[in-house]
Amino acid sequence: MKLALITDIHANREAFEACLEQAHLHGADRLALLGDFVGYGADPGWVVERVQDLVAQGAIAVRGNHDEAVVKMATSNLVEDARRAVQWTRDALAPGHLAFLGSLPYRNELGSSLFVHANAWAPEGWEYILSRSEAVRSMMATDCRHTFAGHVHQPALYHLSSTGKIADFTPVPGVAVPVPAHRQWLALPGSCGQPRDGNPAACWAMFDDSRHTLTFHRVPYHHEATAAKIMAAGLPRQLAERLHEGT
């Protein structure tokens, strides 16, 4: 089965559409959507409804911290621009959208794969995986051989040997990486809707569980149109400007 991994869409319709189209062209059999469907962007209603449709068709979806913040107005851990976006988003969403976001689980499993937004040791705590130490902690918290997480807006891949040796590297887009099950793996596909690695192209990844390969992808999209929508909505200018540079 080919499983497309998309995370941190952040109400960016254009990026999400681009990633979904590419996933289809690459033969994805199923989707795993790793949270933060809303926040920052100007199309939260459209994105939530699209995610609802995809889940109805069999997609896996988990809750992100921005999704939870919009539902619960839990913004104490967010910076000012993010808090303003959360309030704007909550006002823009219908009760059904909020109910759907509030119903999403913090984690999901499929076979030997684990899907979370933040990490495996405390998915509801929203701590980041920013180094090998957090990656090891996450992998040690589960028996699953492959863990897929979002939250970090830069692509990364970690693996843990049976002897406890950790390694990591930055994947090259379009190059399939062998991810055999005799090791544990932790993959961060990068952000679809708000990349922060200096490249404005949207991120997604494809896991082939029969071949045990993982391929990271970048997809250019019309980020100028997305930025214009953010500005027109009255959201903070910085949320639009960062899309141009991918920062």
From TrEMBL:
Lineage: superkingdom = Bacteria
Q: Where is the Calcineurin-like phosphoesterase domain?
A: 1-204
Instruction: Give this protein's Gene Ontology molecular function annotations.
Output: phosphatase activity
Instruction: List cellular component terms (GO).
Output: cytoplasm
User: What family is this?
Assistant: Belongs to the metallophosphoesterase superfamily. YfcE family.
The entry's protein name is: Calcineurin-like phosphoesterase family protein
Write down the Gene3D superfamilies for this protein, in alphabetical order: 3.60.21.10
Organism (species): Sphaerotilus hippei
* CDD domains recorded: MPP_superfamily (cd00838)
Q: Which InterPro entries match?
A: Ap4A_hydrolase (IPR050126), Calcineurin-like_PHP_lpxH (IPR024654), Metallo-depent_PP-like (IPR029052), Pesterase_MJ0912 (IPR011152)
